[in-house]
Amino acid sequence: MRLLVIDTSGPECAAGVYDTERGDVVSFRSETIGKGHAEILPGMIEATMAESGLAFADLERIAVTIGPGSFTGIRVGVALARGLGLALQIPVVGVTTLEVVAEGRLAARDKPVFAAIDARRDELYGQLFDTDGTAITEASAYHYDELRALAHAKGAAVEGSGAAVLAGAPSPQLDAFPLATIGRIAARLPKSRKAQPLYIRGADARPQTGFAVPHA
């Protein structure tokens, strides 16, 4: 299966083509921009498709990160992914950033993983995953002590930028959401998994007024 993979959930704007037979991306473009995803992403997709040697008609699925993360970035990525999916008549599958964090850590762990992303405002976005990757809890916002206590109670390892926050890291840590990991997750998810933005905090969702994409 060949998938177009899009990630605009953070300061990185990235797009690539993932091939399940190779188990890796065959082409990609990535740039740290902070803002301006809408201006850069379309050209980035065109460039990575050209580099892959594939036509858009060769794609069988589109994968896009749906959050939690940057409200504006997520909205841009999801809207473009949906538009392409509609034009190509192929499924568009949403992958959460917490799933990506957990996927990259579970292989090296023999215990549950609490994927945690720095949400600022003294909070972390977090979700607990079992050793087989099954989500045990819903994605939620936690205060530091709350997440630390829950992870301890479940015997889970905290992974992601949230781990650095809990350890008292002096500067904010950025999470990496590898396109290959996003593609691998999306390829095994049912095509019915909707690409709907995942906004956890109410404040993150308020700018959505008038926008057609509903909450997950």
From TrEMBL:
It comes from Rhizobium setariae. One of its GO terms (biological process) is tRNA threonylcarbamoyladenosine modification. CDD domains: ASKHA_NBD_TsaB (cd24032). It holds the Pfam family TsaD. Residues 34-151 form the Gcp-like domain. One of its GO terms (cellular component) is cytosol. This is tRNA (Adenosine(37)-N6)-threonylcarbamoyltransferase complex dimerization subunit type 1 TsaB. PANTHER family: TRNA N6-ADENOSINE THREONYLCARBAMOYLTRANSFERASE (PTHR11735), TRNA THREONYLCARBAMOYLADENOSINE BIOSYNTHESIS PROTEIN TSAB (PTHR11735:SF11).
